[in-house]
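Protein modeling request. Please complete all fields; requests missing the sequence field cannot be processed.
Requester role: graduate student
Desired output: 3D structure, token encoding
Chains: 1
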Amino acid sequence: MKVYETTLSRGITRTKEFERKKLAAFAVNVGTKCGHGCTYCSSGALLRMHSSFREAGRSPFEHGFSIVDPDTPNRVALDSHRIRRRGLVQLCTTVDAWSPEAQTHDLGRRCLEALLAEPGWTVRILTKNAAVARDFDMIARHRDRVLIGMSITAMPERSDLISVVEPNASSLADRIAVLREAHDRGLRTYAMLCPLLPGIANASEQVDELVRLAANCGAEEVFAEPVKPRGPGLRQTQQALERHGYVKEAAAVGEIRRSVVWSRYVAQLISDLQRTVRAHHDIGRLRILLYPSRLSEEDAARIRRDDAGVVWLGRK
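Delivered output (316 residues):
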């Protein structure tokens, strides 16, 4: 993994898009390219014009490198003191503060310390790395102000597949263990089931297991999302699965590159999520993040007939 360094302009930024997603009003990011290397990641499409990629001489859609800002905690400390209208911050929205390159500089813990040093800030952690458990001592001292979320993209029996598309993230078993430990310690948790890839984690019984896991871990909210078709992520995911011999699953991912199939996949996934959350949790706690522009009229109408838990995003 080649690691590049950059300097970001801000520590804490407003994020109206994530506010619409009901995730947070503010964001902290510790770089522009995450070292977990998830093949389906859409952050490259969002950040493709950032100067850090030109400076590194790399494409945002390549893998095998990361871009981190080691000085982020100092800017977060300045902004957390300077900003007067405070609220919920997501750490992070486009990268991971506990990814391998971020751990080198202890960025997750240091950013948390900077935020929690000032009253009025609350933090939503989102990570794919079990290293966050090392910071439970500090989180426990501020347990009312921190929400812990592990990105759980399948159950452990699908680990062989997930290790292909999330090559540098912690194992699913370790992520689940961290979420359970957080709950056992009395810390606040939420579930991020995102993305639920076709052929890997979208079957009704798999969705059922994931929602029951979230409920058993005391999740205050259950966020879920279909995989985004933006950028080359689906193609790269399909190719990675093919290279490792997962032909059937690669074909399922390849199919949803067609809009009509993606639309059907989304409508069925939403239906399965609603059914199992009603059975095992609380439908009022479900947040399905949906950009509907590629939905067929038929599937959009089907979802609107029962859109409990659906957070409609994108243009009106």
